[in-house]
Amino acid sequence: MTTQTKKMRRSRSNRMLAGVCGGLAEFFGISSFWFRLAFLLALIPGGVPGILAYLLIWIIVPNE
Protein backbone atom coordinates (compact mmCIF):
# COMPACT_ATOMS: atom_id res chain seq x y z
CA MET A 1 0.00 0.00 0.00
CA THR A 2 1.38 3.37 -0.99
CA THR A 3 0.27 6.53 0.70
CA GLN A 4 1.07 9.84 -0.82
CA THR A 5 1.21 12.91 1.36
CA LYS A 6 0.36 16.26 -0.12
CA LYS A 7 2.70 19.12 0.61
CA MET A 8 1.60 22.70 0.58
CA ARG A 9 3.53 24.66 -2.06
CA ARG A 10 3.03 27.99 -3.78
CA SER A 11 2.12 27.45 -7.41
CA ARG A 12 4.41 28.47 -10.25
CA SER A 13 1.83 27.88 -12.98
CA ASN A 14 -1.39 29.14 -11.35
CA ARG A 15 -0.29 32.48 -9.97
CA MET A 16 -1.18 36.13 -10.17
CA LEU A 17 1.12 37.60 -7.54
CA ALA A 18 3.02 35.05 -5.44
CA GLY A 19 1.21 31.79 -6.17
CA VAL A 20 -0.45 31.59 -2.76
CA CYS A 21 -4.03 31.15 -4.00
CA GLY A 22 -2.94 28.75 -6.74
CA GLY A 23 -1.00 26.66 -4.23
CA LEU A 24 -3.94 26.56 -1.82
CA ALA A 25 -6.24 25.55 -4.68
CA GLU A 26 -3.97 22.71 -5.75
CA PHE A 27 -3.59 21.50 -2.16
CA PHE A 28 -7.33 21.48 -1.44
CA GLY A 29 -8.39 20.46 -4.96
CA ILE A 30 -10.70 23.39 -5.72
CA SER A 31 -10.58 26.37 -8.04
CA SER A 32 -8.14 29.17 -7.20
CA PHE A 33 -10.99 31.60 -7.89
CA TRP A 34 -12.52 30.77 -4.50
CA PHE A 35 -9.31 31.51 -2.61
CA ARG A 36 -8.82 34.75 -4.51
CA LEU A 37 -12.39 35.74 -3.68
CA ALA A 38 -11.85 34.86 0.00
CA PHE A 39 -8.71 37.01 0.21
CA LEU A 40 -10.52 39.83 -1.58
CA LEU A 41 -13.41 39.66 0.88
CA ALA A 42 -10.94 39.61 3.77
CA LEU A 43 -9.54 42.93 2.45
CA ILE A 44 -12.88 44.71 2.82
CA PRO A 45 -12.90 45.27 6.62
CA GLY A 46 -9.80 47.47 6.58
CA GLY A 47 -7.41 45.26 4.67
CA VAL A 48 -5.35 43.94 7.56
CA PRO A 49 -6.85 40.41 7.85
CA GLY A 50 -6.47 39.61 4.17
CA ILE A 51 -3.03 41.15 3.71
CA LEU A 52 -1.66 39.64 6.91
CA ALA A 53 -2.87 36.12 6.06
CA TYR A 54 -1.57 36.38 2.48
CA LEU A 55 1.84 37.67 3.60
CA LEU A 56 2.21 34.96 6.24
CA ILE A 57 1.42 32.22 3.74
CA TRP A 58 3.78 33.84 1.21
CA ILE A 59 6.63 33.82 3.75
CA ILE A 60 6.01 30.39 5.30
CA VAL A 61 5.06 28.22 2.30
CA PRO A 62 7.89 27.37 -0.13
CA ASN A 63 7.68 27.53 -3.94
CA GLU A 64 7.16 24.42 -6.06
Compact summary:
The chain has 64 residues and is mainly α.
Write up this protein:
The protein has 64 residues and is an all-alpha fold. The protein has a domain at 20-60. Helices cover 53% and strands 0% of the residues. The chain contains three helices and no strands. It has helices at residues 20-28, 32-43, 48-60. The longest helix is centred in the C-terminal third of the chain and has 13 residues, at 48-60. The N and C termini lie far apart (26 Å). The mean pLDDT is 86.
Layout: helices, strands, pairs:
Elements: H1 20-28, H2 32-43, H3 48-60
Helix pairs in contact: 1-2, 2-3
Share of residues in strands: under 5%
- Categorize the overall geometry: globular
Total number of strands = 0
Mean pLDDT: 86
The helix/strand order is HHH
Rg measurement, Å: 13 Å
Q: Count of helical segments?
A: 3
Distance between the termini: 26 Å
Flag low-confidence runs. Answer: none
Structural class: mainly alpha
> Major sheet, described briefly?
none
Helix content: 40-55%
List keywords for this structure.
64 residues, mainly alpha, 53% helix
